[in-house]
Amino acid sequence: MFGRKKKKNYEGRTVVLVGHCFPDRFMIKSAIKRAVPGSSLETVNDEKGLEPYLNGSAVLLVNRELDGTFVTDSGIELIEQVMKGDDPPVTILISNYEDAQSQAETAGANPGFGKSDLYEARTVEILQKAAGG
Length: 133
Prior knowledge:
Elements: E1 14-18, H1 22-35, E2 40-44, H2 47-50, E3 58-63, H3 75-82, E4 90-94, H4 98-106, E5 110-113, H5 121-130
Parallel strand pairs: 1-2, 1-3, 3-4, 4-5
Helix pairs in contact: 1-5
């Protein structure tokens, strides 16, 4: 029909939630399923679990304060380390704090968003662009 956009399917694209607590994971997964339909969702709460996703093929959604067992509890420090790789993945910080977003972008992350903005049109655009849409 005229005027209707066909929804893009992001099948084959992996979105990884890095360092998020259980309640946040549930909320973020819900937003991702709506914004990036068909994508595979993974959760990582330690360095070993993150390793398979450091080759550039995934989208990492990094929490500002990491939950789990990482060498650091700072999502920004983790982003700095990830971006030093030869083929770093698309990386986004999830934080409501503008200064943290600025630091993450300086470290090489894509523009991010806060948990309070999960269902905003801008967030959907960020997620779709990161996933290749």
